[in-house]
Amino acid sequence: MLDRRKYAIKERVGLFKLTDAYDIYDGESGDQLGIAREEISGLVKVVRLFVNKKLLPTVVNVYAGTEEKRGPLQFSIKRGVVLLRPKVDIITPDGRTVGYLKSKLLSLGGCFMVFDPSDKQIAEIKGDWKGWNFKVSDNSGREVGVVAKKWAGLAKEMFTSADNYAIALNDGVEVQAGFITLLLAAGLAIDTVFKESNQ
After folding, report:
1. Is the pLDDT of residue 157 over 60?
2. What is the chain written as a DSSP string?
3. Quick check: 40 and 59 in contact, CB under 8 A?
4. Nearest Cα to Cα of residue 185 among 24, 19, 53
5. In this predicted structure, what is the pLDDT of residue 159?
6. Of 8, 53, 109, 143, which residue is most buried, by most CB within 10 angstroms?
7. In the prediction, which pLDDT does 154 show?
8. 58: exposed, middle or buried (C-beta count within 10 Å: 0-12, 13-18, 19+)?
9. Where in the chain are the domains?
10. What confidence tens digit (pLDDT) does each residue in 118-151 have?
11. CATH domain 6-195 topology
12. Are 37 and 69 in contact (CB under 8 A)?
């Protein structure tokens, strides 16, 4: 699942939901590769009724397979309580940190940095003025990939919070081990960690 260069993420529609769920597809073949589910405690769900969920801790677990045939855990996205700048850790099933994402304090359209486990910044993900399309650049400023919001139709956009994203690593770009995991995690984190508000 973590060896593709293009992914499509489709958020499951829900009018009054306390947690988010996504289906993950191969961006070229359209085959479903996995699912991502926000899995939080009952206490956090209750608190979300009164407090903006962007400020509360969350965990998004990414599994291979489908909802009906769920496979093994691939990685987890974890965020603690947010004060000013959210930090999002990307964790393997055995508890190792692949890297983390940290938002910039002020940016038009959203921007966050991608760090490896040794705290070295390896990329920056910066949104356009609408915060819909994001460019992924390495430390030299070279664009290596994109995360783009896809239009889901007027009724869906107006009456639900469901979003769809396309994630792609640019052709010919070679990246270090773990970068694909970080790129896929970034696509999920943009929506569920950085952009979502209470329903």
Report:
1. no
2. -TT-SEEEEEEPP-SS-SS-EEEEEETTT--EEEEEEE---HHHHHHTTTS-GGGS-EEEEEEEE-STTEEEEEEEEEE---SSS-EEEEE-TTS-EEEEEEE-SS-SS-EEEEE-TTS-EEEEEEE-TTSSEEEEEETTS-EEEEEEEE---HHHHHH----EEEEEEPTT----TTHHHHHHHHHHHIIIIII----
3. yes
4. 24
5. 46
6. 53
7. 45
8. buried
9. 6-195
10. 999 999 998 887 767 889 999 888 999 999 887 5
11. Porin (2.40.160)
12. no
What is each CA distance from 103 to 43, 85, 151, 179, in whole angstroms? 26, 6, 25, 18
Express each pLDDT in 47-99 by its tens digit: 777 777 777 888 999 999 998 999 999 999 998 877 767 789 999 999 999 99
Please check the confidence at residue 16 and state whether its pLDDT lies above 70.
no
Place of tokens 């947010």: 82
Q: What's residue 108's pLDDT?
A: 59
In Å, how far are 27, 36, 114, 145 from 31, measured between CA atoms? 8, 15, 28, 21
Distance of CA 172 to the CA centre of its chain: 23
The 10 Å Cβ neighbour count of residue 192 is 26
For residue 130, what are the contacts with CB-CB under 8 A and spacing of at least 6? 109
Q: pTM surpassing 0.90?
A: no
Q: Residue type at 24?
A: I
Q: For residue 138, how far is the Cα from the chain centroid?
A: 18
